[in-house]
């Protein structure tokens, strides 16, 4: 039996509740873990609201919130390769087990060992934000010296994109509100405050010839405002808004496999993907953790330390 936080039906924050549940039984290709740290993401409240039915896993209510976690393997389901009981691991809960809980099941092909030297807290932030940043930049494939605009640079994915882009020797301009200026400039971003500046005019002044690529983390209407700053609309990659295709851009192609997780972990160990973890909440404080992300103006990554 383990304590968990989730929702009894689809809806707003009012449907959230704490409850106890029996430890999930790992099915084929799943591992049961004791959760150490769970990452908090915008996707979590979108799932609670019932806006992403394909990712719900079809489990009965109450459902547990959370898509990513780091912890220790307690048991293996059938057909699990490369993981053992007792391994420290991190990965995706893709079958609806939820991660804001003392125990959960992760999908084994979407789970990797935590390498020595990497903390569970950092590892827990890599499946969603870390690998998304890697995938977005891979998709753009820009050479050193190219220019990139990161729209929404101060959040979980944005700061990871900025760090990775700087490591690839790209020239990064990022947008955000005033509180995001300092963390963005620390990682080498030339910052535009969208609350006080004309974003298009300010970005054009910094990069007069137009950008070689844009990673959008905000969505419309901001996406449509900044998209013309790209020299070629095909180099606009959106992470949250599928309507990017309507303006000639592309939605990010995600790789959720173990190999990509291991790659993100290596980048984190090298300090390239070091996430800015701005808040660590106990499980009892999960409502505050998710509320911080749900307000849409998060700084860096928020996590829940379960054990
Ligand atoms: N496809 C996938 O697999 C995948 C994976 C991860 C995330 N996502 C999606 O990607 C999006 C970003 O995720 P995230 O984890 O980085 O979210 P986040 O941590 O909440 O960050 C979003 C950032 O955007 C900033 N922002 C809001 N309005 C803005 C505007 N008009 N202009 C510039 N910045 C603005 C926010 O703060 P300020 O307004 O204070 O600057 C915040 O820092 C979400 O929609 C999420 O669902 C998708």
Automatic annotation (TrEMBL):
GO CC aspect terms: cytosol
SMART domains named in the record: PKS_ER
MF GO annotations: mRNA 3'-UTR AU-rich region binding; NADPH binding; quinone reductase (NADPH) activity
Domain Enoyl reductase (ER) residue range list: 11-304
Known EC number: 1.-.-.-
Keywords from the named record: NADP, Oxidoreductase
InterPro entries: ADH-like_N (IPR013154), ER (IPR020843), GroES-like_sf (IPR011032), NAD(P)-bd_dom_sf (IPR036291)
A UniProt-annotated Pfam family: ADH_N
Top-level enzyme category: oxidoreductase
Oxidoreductase recorded as keyword: yes
Keyword Oxidoreductase included in the entry's annotation: yes
Entry-linked PANTHER family: DEHYDROGENASE, ZINC-CONTAINING, PUTATIVE (AFU_ORTHOLOGUE AFUA_5G10220)-RELATED, QUINONE OXIDOREDUCTASE PIG3-RELATED
Name listed for the protein in its UniProt record: NADP-dependent oxidoreductase
């Amino acid at each position: 039996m383990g304590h968990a936080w989730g929702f009894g039906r689809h809806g707003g924050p009012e449907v959230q509740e704490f409850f106890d549940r029996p430890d999930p039984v790992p099915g084929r290709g799943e591992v049961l873990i004791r959760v150490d740290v769970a990452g908090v993401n915008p996707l979590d409240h979108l799932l609670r609201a019932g806006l992403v039915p394909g990712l719900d896993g079809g489990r009965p209510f109450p459902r547990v919130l959370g898509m990513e976690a780091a912890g220790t393997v307690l048991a293996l389901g059938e057909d699990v390769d490369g993981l053992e009981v007792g391994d420290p691991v991190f990965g995706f809960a893709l079958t609806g087990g939820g991660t804001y809980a003392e125990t959960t099941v992760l999908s084994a092909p979407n789970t990797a060992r935590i390498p020595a030297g990497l903390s569970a807290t950092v590892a827990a932030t890599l499946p969603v934000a870390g690998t998304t940043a890697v995938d977005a930049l891979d998709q753009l494939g820009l050479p050193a010296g190219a220019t990139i605009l990161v729209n929404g640079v101060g959040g979980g994915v944005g700061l990871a994109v900025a760090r990775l882009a700087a490591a690839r020797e790209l020239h990064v301009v990022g947008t955000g509100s005033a509180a995001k200026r300092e963390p963005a400039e620390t990682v080498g971003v030339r910052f535009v405050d969208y609350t006080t500046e004309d974003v298009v005019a300010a970005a054009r002044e910094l990069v007069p010839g137009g950008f070689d690529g844009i990673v959008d983390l905000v969505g419309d209407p901001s996406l449509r405002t900044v998209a013309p700053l790209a020299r070629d609309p095909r180099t606009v990659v959106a992470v949250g808004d599928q309507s990017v295709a309507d303006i000639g851009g592309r939605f990010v192609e995600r790789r959720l496999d173990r190999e990509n997780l291991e790659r993100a972990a290596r980048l984190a160990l090298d300090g390239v993907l070091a996430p800015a973890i701005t808040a660590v909440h106990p499980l009892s404080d999960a409502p505050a953790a998710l509320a911080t992300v749900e307000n849409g103006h998060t700084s860096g990554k928020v996590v829940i330390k379960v054990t």
